[in-house]
Design brief:
single chain; 90 residues
Amino acid sequence: MIYDLEWLKNFDGKMLPSQVDMAELANSIEVYVSQFRYVYTTSLADYPSINIEVRNGNIPHLLGLSKLIILVFPLVILLRFSPELRATGR
């Protein structure tokens, strides 16, 4: 299967892992997703924008091949966006 830009844009998550050609998907992510910076604007005064830079080293995480990111990322987001927790260090 070829994972082109249109396929990536329209991906709805409804695919069995056994149907994924991981090498082809990784190549497509490298071409169409990584090496770019994504800027999202918000309505939050403290965080008017969120910048996400995706590098080739992030591809294993994007493919779900890193268990550590699944365990740590929610904590990082919580600490980053929770002033109460950040201020007390808890």
